[in-house]
């Protein structure tokens, strides 16, 4: 019996040593990566926008110098979460959430079918881009960054920006500008190798401490749940342990930062799996990458938190969680189920 326990202890030691080497080695390699070149055109990260909207966002996102596809995508995500049928209590309508008065003056027939329809994304997305660029033109002589002033105008109106001489001192407007700027990083294809985040190692340490814990659908690790988790409950708790608040469900966590390629993965990145690789709304699973092609995850009912390989047919991509990216996201998604 003592010999069996000795073998188990040695095996566990080798496992954790392997994990430590993966983390240290991968972060050391990242330290030597270059920053890339400046001034490159902003394009959409693969899979960041639902495939049905990707071509039109890419096209109209380049309508004027103050706009780019990732900014337009961030606005649409913030406004409706890609829901073409969204309607707010203030009567804002469609994927771009135009109120009727604004649509009446700024809605355009983007697809050339003879009708400007606020409920048709083929009209609403071009209209949002056109409206953005009109606002950018209105405030072109205002001091400060024209894109920030454009976004502030979208939220508070161009007159408020002109009167304030820049982003006005309204908490809602300042937060809107910060939110869209942060979210845009999640939709943009990186033009340089991404740096590791400070919180990644701590998030891995937390997840590692839960190895062997039984899976529970909807589990958030509470005492009443016996300290058990589902997949997004584990990732949320792991980053909460290092002071970063993530949304509860996996497909919302997808937008918590930029998207490294498979070759650029670092320990601490969230790795995602989807039913439809062209649509991030179909994400059904998430884990925390630890290096060497492996993640820590809470797989499914009947399993325990464990190491699993990430290379499977439903792998859609990864997110490098940032504080600003996480802060820009909703902390709850009533339309989604835990996963």
Describe the protein's architecture and organization.
By secondary structure, the chain is of the alpha+beta class. 41% of the residues lie in helices and 8% in strands. It contains 12 helices and 5 strands. It has a 5-stranded antiparallel β-sheet. A hairpin with an 8-residue loop joins strand 3 and strand 4. Helix 2 packs across helix 3, helix 6 crosses helix 7 and helix 6 packs across helix 8. It is elongated, with a radius of gyration of 22 Å.
> Which value, in Å, is the CA radius of gyration?
22 Å
Distance between the termini: 40 Å
Tell me how many strands there are.
5
Strand order of the largest sheet: 4-3-2-1-5
Search tags:
339 residues; alpha+beta; 5-stranded antiparallel β-sheet; 12 helices; 5 strands; disordered N terminus; disordered C terminus
List the SSEs and their pairings.
Layout: H1 2-31, H2 54-60, H3 69-80, H4 100-106, H5 121-138, H6 146-156, H7 158-164, H8 171-187, H9 200-209, H10 231-240, H11 250-253, E1 270-274, E2 283-291, E3 294-297, E4 306-309, E5 315-319, H12 323-327
Antiparallel strand pairs: 1-2, 1-5, 2-3, 3-4
Helix pairs in contact: 2-3, 3-8, 5-6, 6-7, 6-8, 9-10
């Amino acid at each position: 019996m003592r010999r069996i326990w000795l073998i188990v202890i040695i095996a566990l030691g080798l496992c954790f040593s392997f994990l430590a080497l993966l983390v240290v080695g991968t972060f050391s390699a990242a330290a030597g990566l270059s920053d890339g070149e400046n001034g490159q055109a902003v394009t959409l990260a693969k899979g960041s926008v639902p495939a049905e909207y990707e071509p039109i966002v890419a096209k109209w996102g380049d309508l004027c110098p103050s706009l780019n596809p990732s900014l337009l995508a961030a606005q649409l995500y913030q406004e409706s979460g890609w829901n073409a049928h969204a309607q707010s209590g203030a009567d804002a309508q469609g994927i771009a959430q135009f109120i009727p008065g604004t649509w009446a003056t700024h809605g355009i027939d983007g697809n050339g079918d003879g009708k400007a329809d606020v409920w048709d994304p083929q009209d609403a997305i071009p209209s949002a881009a056109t409206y953005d660029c009109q606002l950018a033109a209105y405030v072109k002589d205002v001091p400060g960054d024209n894109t920030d002033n454009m976004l502030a105008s979208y939220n508070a109106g161009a007159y408020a920006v002109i009167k304030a001489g820049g982003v006005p001192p309204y908490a809602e407007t300042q937060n809107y500008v910060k939110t869209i700027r942060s979210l845009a990083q999640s939709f943009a294809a990186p033009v340089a190798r991404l740096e590791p985040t400070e919180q990644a190692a701590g998030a891995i340490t937390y997840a590692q401490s839960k190895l062997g814990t039984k899976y529970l659908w909807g589990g958030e690790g509470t005492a009443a749940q016996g300290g058990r988790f589902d997949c997004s409950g584990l990732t949320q708790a792991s980053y909460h342990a290092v002071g970063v608040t993530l949304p509860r469900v996996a497909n919302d966590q997808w937008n918590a930062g930029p998207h490294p390629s498979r070759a650029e993965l670092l320990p601490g990145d969230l790795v995602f799996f989807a039913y439809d690789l062209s649509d991030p709304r179909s994400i059904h699973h998430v884990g925390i990458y630890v290096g060497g092609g492996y993640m820590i995850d809470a797989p499914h009912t009947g399993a325990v938190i464990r190491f699993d390989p990430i290379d499977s047919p439903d792998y859609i991509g990864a997110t490098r969680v940032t504080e600003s990216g996480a802060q820009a996201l909703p902390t709850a998604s009533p339309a989604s189920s835990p996963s």
